[in-house]
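Comment on both lines for my students:
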Amino acid sequence: MQQIGLFFGTFNPIHNGHLILANHFVEHTNLDQIWFVVTPQNPFKQKQSMLSNNHRLELVYRATKEYPAMQPSTIEFNLPTPNYTCDTLIRLEEKYPDKKFALIIGEDNLASFHKWKNYEVILERYPLYVYPRNEAETPSEALAKYKSIHLVDAPKIEVASSQIREWIKAGKNVRPLLPQESWEYIDEMNFYK
């Protein structure tokens, strides 16, 4: 059965750090594919710097189309908001009964994972692959008992989408930080300026 790692995010914008991490998980774990689950914009929290769902999806599509083991997912686009990961996982299992799913999260998210809706159910049913983050807090002791948590020695990524948006707004060259086709789309559409 195919093992799918779910990498959730706004990807506003997707950058090379995301691809480096996804590639690391495909090459160094038992995950066969990484699906970039593009999180919809919360209709109640409109942010000026947040591109529409379809523009962010297009950026992810362009970034991943050369990598057969990576693909965008719109599974959350049609779910009620606010989105909860546990609900997304149920929908994915219904839609893809022939696949097994795992979550990919940063160490910073692991520290607050015990606050997620139905976190115990998630940990009992799905593996959690955790990558290092610089600002990570220590995870709660309640999580220590779960064998489903796998700390992966993935590269630490120093760049963030928020920095990239700021640098674009300031007129800086961010081209080396972005997949070529995603950068071209951002430039052509004048995003984040």
About this structure: The two ends are 44 Å apart (CA to CA). The chain has one domain: 2-157.
